[in-house]
Amino acid sequence: MRSWNLSQRGGVYVALLVLVLPVLCPSLFSPLGHASPSVFSEWNAPKPRHLSLLKGAVQRQISDEQKSELWSPLAPNGLKSCVSPANGPVVPKNTQGYIQVFLDGGLNQQRMGICDAVAVAKILNATLVIPHLEVNPVWKDSSSFEDIFDVDHFIDVLKDEIPIVRDLPEEYAWSTREYYAVAIRATRVKTAPVHASANWYLENVLPVLQSYGIAAIAPFSHRLAFDNVPEDIQRLRCKVNFQALIFVPHIRELGEALIKRLRYPVQPQSGADDEYIQTTVNKNINRGPGKFVALHLRFDKDMAAHSACDFGGGKAERLALAKYRQIIWQGRVLNSQFTDEELRSQGRCPLTPEEIGLLLASLGFDSQTRLYLASHKVYGGEARISSLRKLFPLMEDKKSLASEEELRKVEGKASLLAAVDYYVSMQSDVFISASPGNMHNAMVGHRTYENLKTIRPNMALLGQLFLNKSMDWYDFQQAVQDGHQNRQGQIRLRKTKQSIYTYPAPDCMCSR
């Protein structure tokens, strides 16, 4: 009996150790993409899930006619930029006070918040303080507006629309993020509903401005409606998004360098420095520019955990993602009630690197296609990307194209890295995202505005095709091509409740 009690007690201790060890020693459970394999690794390198399709994709033959059609630009759509108010902008001589906004989320969510902040300042006849960007809780990035966007350009483009200041005058210097973090303040508005109307701001924020001369709105993401907004306010949002927001010079310079190396490739050489790279690029320029596809993979751990789908990493990966949901979102995101098959057939699972590779190959991109990988981190690292790289060996990213010295100003800063990807993606011949999200939405909108080719994966179709394990390459290729004929950047007019930043027509675009 005593022996049994000791055994039972020992089992309890072991169980408790398993529960507390991830808290006491989190590094033991970190994914392989960040460090070496852990003692209790969540990462089991997945095997390809679509071997038959991969074999067909590797052996694919693409006709010259199909290649030409793939790379050809979109036909003119008969629309032009339409971002200035019909009667011309008018800046008031006196404003009601100062508006502050505190923006969370990643780069593209913050970008949309900035556009809305300008619009709200216009609605309230207020002076806008350069928006404050919160520290990103996932990427731990503290980059400020001034670190990412060209403030002088921002103020200059909007100078005829609203007054904008970098900092508050001394009499309001007390109105800081820290001031609002420690107590309830009369000047903070935290009740703004999602997609609030213009009238809501006039009824609820204007009185605060008139009483105190300042109002701080937080949270602010998605706090202005897309419908029933005056035309001049809609056009102002477009003007901010497509004209006023440009990146700081060093991001644009790095982006231009990467674009040049994608169009005029440099053969890899160990220890190559900036001078060697530039000399080689200059030699290649005489051969004419090449084309490239920008691929936003969006396959980080945060996304994988949020989707509740199975990505082939086995039981260890499923448990790790479930624990991540519990710790990061504290129960706000739960395991889905649907099976993986049901989620995939509904188009609710992000495409894995293997699957996005099969999509590109079936559309007609051959093994000589240059891919620019626009992603911050890939969950699982190189093991997860290997099938994609097998299909597209000429795959590049920031680190493969730039020197350590060039990357120094942006390394370790998620928002700046995302800004570089945004800049390069806007210059690509074709853009495609592996799943919907803020980057996808921002790119679709901006490239629609510029009439650039952007492939939108048919998620439901692809989910159903990938579930069919008996489908051969020819049938898969035909089904994919048929399902994507009208998903390559053609104009789609915005519908009720849809975002003006994803669907800029007709609000931002007029007939020629």
Question: What structural keywords apply?
Answer:
512 residues; alpha/beta; 2 domains; 6-stranded parallel beta sheet; 5-stranded parallel beta sheet; 23 helices; 13 strands; 8% strand; GDP-Fuc_O-FucTrfase; membrane
What does this structure look like?
The chain has 2 domains: 51-76 and 249-299 and 350-511, no CATH class; 98-244. Strands 2, 3, 4, 5, 6 and 7 form a 6-stranded parallel beta sheet that branches. A 5-stranded parallel beta sheet has the order 10-9-8-11-12. Helix 17 links the parallel strand 9 and strand 10. Helix content is 45%, strand content 8%. The protein has helices at residues 2-24, 51-58, 64-71, 107-124, 145-148, 151-157, 177-181, 198-204, 206-212, 231-244, 249-263, 274-284, 301-307, 314-329, 340-345, 353-363, 382-391, 398-401, 404-407, 414-426, 438-449, 459-467, 473-483, and strands at residues 79-81, 98-103, 127-129, 132-133, 164-165, 188-189, 214-217, 292-296, 370-373, 395-396, 430-433, 454-455, 509-511. It is a single-pass membrane protein. Keywords: Carbohydrate metabolism, Fucose metabolism, Glycoprotein, Glycosyltransferase, Membrane, Signal, Transferase, Transmembrane, Transmembrane helix.
Distance separating the two termini: 90 Å
Number of strands: 13
Mean pLDDT: 86
Instruction: State Rg.
Output: 25 Å
The low-confidence parts are: 1-8, 10-24, 26-41
Q: What is the total number of structural domains? A: 2
Strand content: 5-15%
Q: Which structural class should the secondary elements be placed in?
A: alpha/beta
Fraction of helical residues: 40-55%
Largest sheet: 6 strands, parallel
The best one-word shape is globular
The DSSP helix count reads 23
Protein name: O-fucosyltransferase family protein
GO molecular function: glycosyltransferase activity
Family: Belongs to the glycosyltransferase GT106 family.
InterPro entries: FucosylTrfase_pln, GDP-Fuc_O-FucTrfase, GT106_glycosyltransferase
